[in-house]
Amino acid sequence: MRDSVKLYTTIYKPRWGSDHPILIQRTPYSSAPYEDGIPRGLVTSYRMRNFVSRGYIIVYQDVRGRFMSEGEFENIRPASAAVNEATDAYDTVEWLVNNIEGNNGRVGFWGCSYPGFYAMYAGVDAHPAVKAVSPQAPVTDWFMGDDVHHNGVMMLSDAFNLMPMLSHTNHQPTTEWEPTKNHEMKPDRFNFFIRASRDSLRKIMHPSSFWDAMSSHPDYDNWWQERDVRRYLYNIKPAVMVVGGTFDAEDCYGAWNTFKAIRSQSPQTDCRLVMGPWAHGAWNGRKAHKLGDFDFGRGASGRYYHNNFELPFFEYHLRGKGSVEEIAEVSMFLSGSNEWYTTDDWQLSDTEEISYYLDGETLSTTAPAATACRSYVSDPDNPVPYDSVTDYRRREYMVANQEFTTVRKDVLCYTTEPLATDVTLVGEVIASLDVAISTTDADFVVRVIDLFPSDDAQKPDYQMLVRAEPMRARYRESFSNPLPMVPNEKTTIRYALPDIAHTFKAGHRIMVCVQSSWFPLAEFSPQQFVNLWECSSADFISADIDVYNSSKITFKRVR
Questions:
Q1: Which residues of the chain have pLDDT under 50?
Q2: DSSP line for 127-145
Q3: Cβ atoms 514, 552 nearer than 8 A
Q4: What's residue 181's pLDDT?
């Protein structure tokens, strides 16, 4: 690299011919095997065999400070640094195109999850040889919507598991995973996290450099903002295909919002979005079309994705073969109807807004005539579980049956009448909650559910989770400058849930649930306006919550 640090790079090159494109994945998760041999995936993976058979040069690289690469690792290293992930990608390409015999001077980057973060940075101030990048489920903003936080609410289970694995300092090149603490969760994950404060968890997992760094930045200050990849997505030269899953438990936010940022900030970029009914990275596997109790059909399979999106994208931009005309600007797979929705207008002009008011127990498109509210108590000793299985965080919770919570007194449920016709909702969901609380802070979680009819042949009365998202009340006006709630004063909390792509079939009902915990997927709020990094378990108190019938949920409905 330009600062003389060496990055370990493994190159798999065809033994025949010339004019080979280069496809690169940069990863913090190891470019093994380091001894003689090739990665098993190059032989067993359908997608990788397709690239290998077409003569691609496949490159894996340990990012700086990880495994065999020199230097110090930094989580979500900002591009404002003199040496960063964009410069490392640039310097890597410069070396490869000038030293690997037989390459055609065209380079692509791809990666899923954290490697998706590195793939996107390869498009920032990109080397001229970089023609195509595909960030897939990319880590984008760890405060607003990916892995670690959603709207400032810590995603407790994922953050606690992820941080120790990516928090080593004083790195020395190694082929082995550096040891991490094994956190035994007794008696189970749910009860382990009850009343756990951020500070108590920090002591358990110490040392963890990024967890410690977060404690100095409880709100969305410049430290967080400069680690938001979207801040640098201007004047992107390579073609971009963003890929994600509507049921991605880790980085659903990153895919939607990376795409939107490029379209709005770099409108000249050839940028496309592919969103399937997939769990995190599932489009790369053999059972991509299945999740939990659902089989979305062959159109959602990994082979369908690869043959219709990924392979044509790289073939066209890196080899000049075929066409990308059949890949729409936006391709979303509609769960519910199990078909692809496509449009070449990223702003979804073929949709109309539809708002549902939370009136009584009814979800109604008619504004209520008189003011009323429903109430519940949010108790830190009895938080609402996010799944019927809480001893480990399973991906299937994203579509799981919600019957286990909709009968609770601290969960308010609202439903439409049975739908007369199919209703297809795509794009962003906006929750506008008019609430009053007895304390100075609280979290709110909105869940959108597809309620199957009683006479459904396969899933009678099934309550399929379509989307859910938490929001911390203190951030209702600004994520950078939080404000306490005024006890018992009616206040509006408005926030966006990640986009959806779902058809509610005729006879089904749309259900929306409101609650103040989603545990232990998301941390429980102390329900006081205190510094969450300094408070103790004694600071967690109960809150009386009122939700007014002027509250509403707004969707985009396909006309």
A1: none
A2: -TTEEEEEEES----TTTT
A3: no
A4: 65
State the DSSP code for 146.
Answer: S
User: How far apart (Å, rounded) are the C-alpha atoms in residues 150 and 431?
Assistant: 15
Helix (H), strand (E) at residue 97 = helix 85-99
The 3-state DSSP class for residue 175 equals coil
> What is the pTM assigned to this prediction?
0.97
Cβ–Cβ < 8 Å for 317, 311 = no
Extract the tokens encoding 41. Answer: 């995936």
Q: Which amino acid is at 211?
A: W
Quick check: 351 and 557 in contact, CB under 8 A? yes
Give the position of tokens 């044509």. Answer: 312
**How many alpha carbons fall within 13 Å on the CB side of residue 348?**
22
CA distance readout (Å), 2 to 61, 90, 99, 128, 236? 16, 10, 16, 17, 22
Whole-number Cα distances in Å, 58 to 38, 68, 91, 100:
11, 18, 17, 11
How far, in Å, CA of 269 to CA of 235, rounded? Answer: 7
DSSP state of 519: B
Cα(433)–Cα(552) distance, rounded to whole angstroms? 6
Collapse the DSSP code of 60 into the 3-class scheme (helix H, G, I; strand E, B; otherwise coil) and give the result. strand
- Could you give the dihedral angle defined by the CA atoms of residues 119, 314, 289 and 156, in that order, rounded to the nearest 10 degrees? 0
Separation between Cα atoms, residue 151 and residue 239, nearest integer Å: 30
Specify the length of the chain in residues. 559
Alpha helices in 16-77 (DSSP H): 41-44, 46-53
Q: Is the N-terminal amide bond of 187 cis, ω within 30° of 0?
A: yes
* Residue 135 preceded by cis peptide, ω within 30: no
Can you tell me the distance from the alpha carbon of 372 to that of 120, in angstroms, rounded to the nearest whole number?
48
d(CA 75, CA 252): 19
Q: How far apart are CA 121 and CA 88, in angstroms?
A: 9
Burial class (CB in 10 A: 0-12, 13-18, 19+), 508: buried
The pLDDT, as a whole number, for residue 35 is: 83
The pLDDT, as a whole number, for residue 165 is 81
Provide the pLDDT for residue 265. Answer: 98
Q: How many angstroms separate the CA atoms of 555 and 502, rounded? A: 11
